[in-house]
Design goal:
Helix content of chain B: over 70%
Mean pLDDT of chain B: 83
Distance between the termini of chain A: 21 Å
Oligomer: heterodimer
Number of domains of chain A: 1
CATH topology of the largest domain in chain B: Rna Polymerase Sigma Factor, Chain: A
Largest sheet of chain B: none
Number of domains of chain B: 2
Structural class of chain B: mainly alpha
CATH class of the largest domain in chain B: Mainly Alpha
Distance between the termini of chain B: 56 Å
Chain lengths: ~200, ~160
């Protein structure tokens, strides 16, 4: 169908629609009363729970920081603290940016650009987060070992059981990271298609 | 109460515009109802802040298209208040030309296959908007609008030849 044919059809459609009542007054008022549920509510809820959990652990490390009595354990402690505070900040920040895009005062062009921008940053963040969480596991184990068991992980002799625990830990972290990545993908999948279309432009 | 009445009148007057936008941007009936609801809600939310700098219809097109665009990102539907009867095709009388319905579906499909920018621009073009008005609503320059319309024309012509 060519554009001119479409135009004729569209005009005919418009004329017919004008004569019909698609929605009544009462329904319009009911819609205005909806307590609007933001589409990012679910993921934001999980991210917020995660953030509270991270900050809770960060406070625990901070309060017990004096127990990290060697320079290398202190370094691990500082990195853990940084990770636990920065990660939730960025992940919630991107979600906030997505949900705060102003649909009523922006133009179509600006909205597309904003989605593109947030999407690019989110993808970069996702990739970084997966690698960082695996790295972080190796950083937090010595900190947790010291704070919970009072032992210096680096001075320990590694037996089979220890390697087994580390192995299980690695699998667990990869699983959790993949799960988190899955959530992000879920909310941005359709955006991906749209941005792909834009890239083709 | 006055604002509410004015809002209802505004929506009633422009319900066709919203309907056509939802038809182009939504992939299923449920999706369409959800988008229709979203658009009305967004319009209501910002109705007080509309200062009349542009024409009321320009503002409606802008909010509706932006909401439709945001809707493409949405994976979860809100509970709908609209009834099952919500469909222009269902509102058409049985004796309406079957051929027209088929033609409309072909047209919707072709528009849905365009990319997000083209979809918005072509919809406004079909609504009979001038390049200037399309530029004002979408934020693209007048020249850019012209170029994109030309590109879509070519695309549709090529599809027809295939």
């Amino acid at each position: 169908m060519e554009l001119e044919e479409m135009q004729t059809l569209w005009t005919s459609l418009s004329q017919r629609i004008e004569k019909l009542e698609i929605i009544n007054n009462q329904k319009i008022m009911e819609i205005t009363q909806i307590k609007y549920k933001n589409k990012f509510n679910t993921i934001t809820k999980y991210e917020s729970i995660g953030a509270v959990f991270c900050y809770f652990i960060a406070i625990f490390i901070l309060l017990n920081f004096y127990k990290l009595d060697t320079w290398y354990l202190s370094v691990c402690g500082v990195i853990s603290l940084a990770f636990l505070t920065i990660m939730p900040y960025f992940s919630l920040g991107y979600l906030k940016k997505l949900s705060n895009i102003d649909l009523t005062n922006s133009t179509y062009k600006k909205i597309i650009q904003q989605y593109q921008d947030v999407r690019k940053k989110t993808i970069a963040f996702q990739k970084w987060a997966v690698v960082a969480s695996i790295f972080m596991m190796f950083i937090t184990i010595p900190v947790a070992d010291k704070l919970l068991n009072g032992e210096d992980f680096f001075a320990k002799e590694f037996d089979t059981q220890m390697w087994f625990v580390i192995g299980i830990g690695c699998v667990f972290v990869v699983y959790v990271a993949q799960w988190g990545l899955g959530w992000y993908k879920k909310i941005t999948n359709s955006a991906e298609q749209m941005l792909y279309e834009l890239d083709q432009d | 109460m006055q604002t509410e009445d004015y809002f209802v009148k505004t929506i009633r007057k422009n319900e066709g515009i919203i309907y056509k936008i939802t038809k182009v941007y939504a992939s299923s009936r449920e999706d369409q109802k959800d988008l229709y609801q979203d658009i009305i809600f967004q319009l209501w939310r910002s109705f007080d802040s509309f200062k009349g700098k542009s024409k009321l219809t320009t503002w409606i097109y802008r909010v509706a298209l932006n909401t439709a665009l945001a809707h493409l990102q949405k994976s979860k539907r809100s509970p709908t208040l609209l009834t099952d009867e919500f469909s222009f095709e269902m509102l058409m009388s049985p004796e309406e030309d079957k051929n027209l319905k088929e033609q409309l579906e072909i047209m919707y499909d072709q528009i849905r296959n365009l990319n997000a920018i083209e979809k918005g621009i072509i919809l406004l073009y079909l609504e009979g908007k001038s390049h200037d008005e399309i530029a004002e609503i979408t934020g693209y320059s007048n020249t850019n609008v012209g170029t994109r319309i030309g590109r879509v024309k070519q695309k549709l012509k090529n599809n027809k030849l295939k």
